[in-house]
Each structure stands twice: as structure tokens, then as C-alpha cells.
Write a structure and sequence with these properties.
Blueprint: H1 16-22, E1 30-33, E2 49-52, E3 58-64, E4 70-75, E5 80-85, E6 89-94, E7 115-117, E8 123-127, E9 132-136, E10 143-147, E11 149-150, E12 153-154, E13 161-163, E14 169-173, E15 193-197, E16 203-207, E17 213-218, E18 224-229, E19 236-242, E20 248-256, H2 258-262, E21 272-274, E22 280-284, E23 287-291, E24 297-302, E25 309-313, E26 318-323, E27 326-331
Antiparallel strand pairs: 1-24, 2-27, 3-4, 4-5, 5-6, 7-8, 8-9, 9-10, 11-12, 13-14, 14-15, 15-16, 17-18, 18-19, 19-20, 21-22, 22-23, 23-24, 25-26, 26-27
């Protein structure tokens, strides 16, 4: 199995087979319209704007409204969180973002990955390097561990997270942060879990059968939980039906990306965001796939490189993309 981390762009060590995949021609930046329904989301002349680059592997983009608005994103291998503000450009927001101190060879990705806000506007992170979910104080940049174990055993390396309206936290726990991934001697859990942490502190594993759970998101009505799977043997996007308590009652494949992967489109199912109207912006082979709630492909946003994740910002007026070494922006149509 070659997981997502074997398919990153240049700058990181790649297995031989992954190098061949990564070397496949990548389409230039642009937007492919696959359905007229895309016109309600993007203007016909919408273009991909590159904001900056020079990073190692960008991830976890999050739009934060406070202070006039800013984009936070992780450079996971460099163990940093960066900030972008339109009037000030880029600066470092937090370093180290994940594991502090000397980084042992047993840790592959020391930095934080996915970022989100809780219902009080506080920053939460999937701290891959420290193998925890943590909270960060905006004023002091001080970190507090929210949770780091299931049934007394340490997580693999939490990757992405989302908070429900009742304060429950959903997150994924693949082994990407560990050297050797699934074969790492540091692993204490024998599965890669999809979890739910209630506002009261109860932790439940919702699914322990997913080989490489990655991005995670909720539908606007919170009746559906989306989880992407970054496994070359089964690159899919799952949709879980949730009951009134926020627990799954069933699972289906919303989108199967196997054909895209076989066609050597760059990237894998990774991070995603759901718009208030219900459509998804989901990373996958080729870029960001714009999907209906039923899984219909409406369009494809391409940056000319692998796209790991995205964030809706500026009150819904823009989509920000973390694209390998760079950050990009696409204007969105305002909500009606």
C-alpha cells in the first residue's frame, strides 16, 4: 500500500513507484466545468490566483474571521503554522506547531495538520507530531492537550477535525505522522480510527475499519459525516448517515476516485470543506472536486500541482487551497 504521503510533490522522499506517479503530467491551473450547476458556485471567468509559495507541504487551511480576517495553514514537515492577511502578507503564527524539542527519527511529521475553530472561536488542531488533539490560545499561542488516548492507548497521529453545533468533535487518526506509518513500533492502536469526542468528554470510535482516514467534514444539517480515504487500494470519499445523537447508522461511498488514480491524476482524497448550501469542495486526484451532496461531480479546480486541502473564507466569497508548496485562492459567488 502506498498511502497519500507517498504521493506528495517534490521536496520529500518518495518510494520509487510513487515517484513515477508524481512525475505524471499535471494540467495547468484552471477550472473545469463538468456541470452547469457549477455556475451557481463559481463565475464563468473565475481564475486560480497563486498567493505565495516556497513551503514544504501545506495543509490544514482555516479562515479565522477575527482581526479583520486571516488564513492559517500548516507546513507540516517544517512544524509551523503560517498566517496570511491580505494587507500584510505571510508571517509565522506558531512554531513549533506540533512536537516541541528535538524530533526523534521515529516521528515522520512533527507538525500540526488539520485546524478548526470550536464553538467559542478557539483554535483546535490535529497535532500529528505530538499525537494529540490540542487547543491553542490565540493571545498567548499556548497549547493545551484536549485528548491524546483511546482506551488508554496513544493515538497514531490525528490528522483532521471538525466541530458540530453541540460541541462534539469528530476527528481522524491515520499513522502518517509516524516513521514507518502502519509498521511503526510507536503504534499502540491496531487500527486507524474515526472518532467522536462529546462536549462532555466522552470519546467513541465510530469506525475502526477505514484503512487511511484523512479529511473529515459535516453537512450543514449535520445529518451526514464525510470522511476521505487516502489509500491507493481504495481511494474513496465516504458519507456516514448520522442519527440525532450524532452517531453513524450507515456508510456509503459518495465518490470513488479509483479511476482518477489509475489515470495518474496527481494527489489523493484528502481534506475537504462543505459550503453552507451543502456542496463539497473535496481534494482528490487532479485537484479540488466540486461535488453535490449526492456526489455528482460539478467541477474540478486545478492549481498545476497536488492540492491537499481547502478552506472557505471571507464570508463565503473565497476558497483557499493548500497546494503542495503553495497557497492559492479562487473567488466564489456570494450566497443568495
Amino acid at each position: 500500500m502506498i498511502a497519500r504521503r507517498g504521493l506528495l510533490g517534490a521536496g520529500l522522499a518518495l518510494p520509487l513507484g510513487a515517484r513515477a506517479l508524481a512525475a505524471a503530467p499535471t494540467p495547468a491551473a484552471g477550472i473545469r466545468r463538468l456541470s452547469p450547476k457549477l455556475d451557481a458556485i463559481l463565475d464563468a471567468d473565475a481564475a486560480v490566483e497563486m498567493l505565495g509559495g516556497g513551503y514544504t507541504w501545506t495543509e490544514g487551511p482555516l479562515w479565522v474571521p477575527r482581526g479583520g480576517g486571516m488564513l492559517l495553514f500548516s507546513d507540516v514537515p517544517k512544524n509551523r503554522i503560517w498566517r496570511w492577511r491580505r494587507d500584510r502578507g505571510f508571517d509565522r503564527f506558531l512554531e513549533p506547531s506540533g512536537l516541541a524539542g528535538p524530533i526523534p527519527k521515529s516521528i515522520r511529521e512533527a507538525g500540526a495538520n488539520g485546524l478548526t475553530l470550536d464553538r467559542r472561536g478557539r483554535l483546535l488542531m490535529a497535532d500529528s507530531g505530538s499525537r494529540t488533539v490540542a487547543r491553542v490560545d490565540f493571545a498567548t499561542r499556548r497549547k493545551t492537550v484536549v485528548i491524546d488516548r483511546f482506551a488508554g492507548k496513544r493515538f497514531n497521529s490525528p490528522n483532521d477535525l471538525i466541530v458540530a453545533s453541540d460541541g462534539a468533535l469528530y476527528f481522524t487518526d491515520p499513522p502518517y505522522g509516524l516513521a514507518g506509518e502502519g509498521e511503526s513500533p510507536l503504534r499502540e492502536l491496531d487500527f486507524c480510527g474515526v472518532y467522536r469526542l462529546s462536549a462532555g468528554g466522552r470519546l467513541d470510535v465510530l469506525d475502526r475499519s477505514v484503512t487511511r482516514p484523512n479529511g473529515i467534514a459535516l453537512s450543514p444539517d449535520e445529518a451526514t459525516l464525510y470522511v476521505s480515504v487516502s489509500d491507493t487500494a481504495g481511494p474513496v470519499l465516504f458519507a456516514y448517515a448520522l442519527d440525532a445523537r450524532g452517531f453513524p447508522t450507515g456508510r456509503r461511498v459518495l465518490v470513488d476516485f479509483a479511476a482518477d488514480h489509475r489515470a495518474r491524476a496527481p494527489g489523493m482524497p484528502d481534506g475537504m470543506k462543505v459550503a453552507p448550501e451543502g456542496h463539497l469542495f473535496a481534494s482528490g486526484p487532479g485537484g479540488i472536486h466540486v461535488l453535490s451532496p449526492e456526489g455528482e461531480r460539478l467541477g474540478l479546480i486545478q492549481t498545476g500541482d497536488i492540492v491537499a486541502n481547502c478552506a472557505i473564507g471571507e464570508g463565503g466569497a473565497a476558497l483557499y487551497l493548500t497546494s503542495n508548496h503553495a497557497i492559492a485562492r479562487v473567488p466564489l459567488k456570494p450566497r443568495r
